[in-house]
Amino acid sequence: MHHDKTAKRQKITESWDRFALSVRDLAEAEWHYSKSKLCDYLKIPDTLEDFPREVVGLAFIPPIFYLAFFNFFSFWQWFLSTPTEPWVHLPAVEQHIFGCNPHQIVSRYTSVILDTIAAIPYLVHFLLVLMYPPYCFYHRKRLGSLEPCLRSLWCGGIVCSASVLTQLFFPTAPPWFNESAVYDSEGVLLSQAYNEAGFQRVDAHYGYHLFHEMYIRSPITFGSFPSLHVAFPTVILMNGSWINWQFGLFHVCLISWAALYSHHHYMIDVMGGFLLTFFVYQVYHKVWNPFRGKRVVRLGLDQETENFI
């Protein structure tokens, strides 16, 4: 009798073990199937071994460097003992070069419509930095390889890093500061306007302090030269625009106008952002391309390992 109970208990245990194994196998099969479908939809490799970790890691070095200096700008000012007082003579430089201050001409006439048009590329700018490299990655089949995505990260990161280092060691006052700053007889700053500059009109028009809340959180106040608002759209123009080069050029021109119209930048800042990007891309194409000769899987193109340059 005791032997029969033991045998019955053993059979029940074995049945539950088989059931648990079946559930586990079913769950694993469902997981692999769902992962495969998701990877196919996102156009990413199923396994880490298929992913070109070395070259992608290399491409991320400049953006990480930029973020480390931008987000901890005050710390680096203290640690490196860099100047905190801005250089305020950009208007004089512009007068010498152009014979005028172009931003004052551009902003001579303002309206709600023009304010809104100028605000659009400034708001979109913050999304571009996050969206453009993933866009190049997702459309690598149409673009021919992974290289445009890597190039946007590498060159864009270098442009941003060079800009933030310039602003760290050579802070420059933007138009809104030079035109609003009030000093006492000893040269001590008494008051200044908010750094949303002309976009405070947009906040007033629509009754929402969007730009004020956005710019008050910025770690850099005196970063007029060069203009990153112009530099990154130029990165997209030179890397391969979303639609075509005409649209990319229009975007660069639009945000250049918006930078002047809003009194965020001088014309020399706009030119500095464009020329910095042009120089970085010339170096990349003609002097040193860190990805040339690297061999990676052409993700989503085929299953063979080959050059993507």
Question: What brief labels describe this structure?
Answer:
two-stranded antiparallel ribbon, mainly alpha, 4% strand, elongated, 309 residues, 15 helices
Plain-language structure description:
This protein is 65% helix and 4% strand. It is mainly α and 309 residues long. Helix 3 packs parallel to helix 9 and helix 9 packs antiparallel against helix 13. The termini are far apart.
Helical amount among residues, as a percent range?
55-70%
The total count of helices amounts to: 15
Give the amount of beta strand, in percent.
under 5%
Mean pLDDT comes to 81
Helix-strand pattern: HHHHHHHHHHEEHHHHHEE
From the spread of the alpha carbons, the general shape counts as elongated
List the uncertain runs. 297-309
Distance between the termini: 78 Å
